[in-house]
Specification:
By secondary structure, the protein is an alpha+beta fold. It folds into two domains: 51 residues, no CATH class; 219 residues. 58% of the residues lie in helices and 8% in strands. The strands form two sheets. It has a five-stranded antiparallel sheet. It has a two-stranded antiparallel sheet with strand order 6-7. Helix 2 packs antiparallel against helix 7 and helix 3 packs antiparallel against helix 4. The two termini are 29 Å apart.
């Protein structure tokens, strides 16, 4: 297999795995998630067993670990606060303002986790197809526009979803809203944010499965992180749909489902954050 004969795999227009023969012989395999999250590439020199080759220096590794720890911790705390807010609402242990404050604090941590996740992609180690099977880093950037990369698109949509949630959480502080205003200013952004989370999770599955539909990889820590977070997104969507306010009665479709869906979904994101701490570079 020559560099020109490299094999590309992925979902739709996205390339998530490349296999090629380095100039020195052997085989090199680049996979999107392990390369950007752990700074590793699978390399097998000619006549040797499979090994790992990391092309990033200690300084770059330290930066990757720092970003990973910040993102993971933000989701752990944000999920815990969202779960606490749902608990306050479900068990009537505080008024509406208290509940909104707890949710808003959790939303700030979700905003942080979403943006730092995008920074992980923007500043992730890159590879050189057809090269020696190593990774290299670029100068630090706070932003990039790379919609042809599935990891960038997934984390960008995730970050956008956290910002839409922020609109919903801010509007929840408004008083004296009519039912129509509640559904338009609070409920609609909630549903849109949940939808963005689901799309982001689907793209994350495409990245790790190298195809357009989910797979089962029980021995992959990255797969478990994606699966747990996607379960949380599903529960968030169920909660959002149950939180629709009926115009005729002024009551929620089902307050219990709305609160428990948020609580369990938030717990999933906290669990995903804890797992992410172990997916360190």
């Amino acid at each position: 297999m020559t560099p020109a004969e490299q094999r590309a795999e992925g979902a739709g227009p996205f390339t998530t795995r490349l296999t090629w023969q380095p100039p020195g012989g052997g085989t090199a395999v680049w996979e999107s998630r392990p390369a950007r999250r752990r700074g590793i590439i699978a390399a097998r020199p000619a006549g040797a067993p499979a090994g790992r080759s990391a092309g990033v220096d200690d300084r770059a590794l330290a930066g990757m670990r720092r970003l990973n720890a910040i993102a993971a911790t933000a989701f752990v705390i944000g999920g815990a606060l969202f779960a606490a807010g749902a608990g306050v609402a479900q068990f009537d242990s505080g008024d509406a303002t208290t509940c909104a404050c707890v949710y808003f604090a959790g939303g700030l941590f979700f905003n942080t986790g979403g943006y730092v996740s995008l920074l992980q992609v923007v500043n992730a180690p890159r590879h050189q197809p057809g090269g020696e099977g190593i990774l290299f880093t670029r100068d630090w950037r706070w932003w990039s526009y790379e919609p042809t990369r599935v990891d960038w698109l997934s984390t960008f949509i995730l970050s956008a979803g956290t910002l839409v949630f922020a609109v919903d959480l801010l509007d929840s502080f408004l008083q004296g809203l009519s039912v129509r205003q509640i559904n338009r200013l609070v409920w609609a952004p909630d549903v849109i944010g949940c939808l963005l989370f689901l799309i982001s999770g689907h793209l994350a599955f495409a990245e790790i499965c190298h195809r357009g539909w989910p797979c089962l990889r029980r021995r992959s820590l990255g797969w478990w992180i994606v699966a747990v977070n996607q379960l949380g997104s599903v529960l968030f969507m169920i909660s959002a749909l149950a939180a629709y306010t009926r115009p005729a009665t002024g009551s929620l479709v089902n307050a219990d489902i709305a609160n428990w869906g948020t609580l369990l979904g938030a717990g999933c994101f906290s669990a995903g954050g804890l797992l992410q701490l172990f997916e360190r570079p």
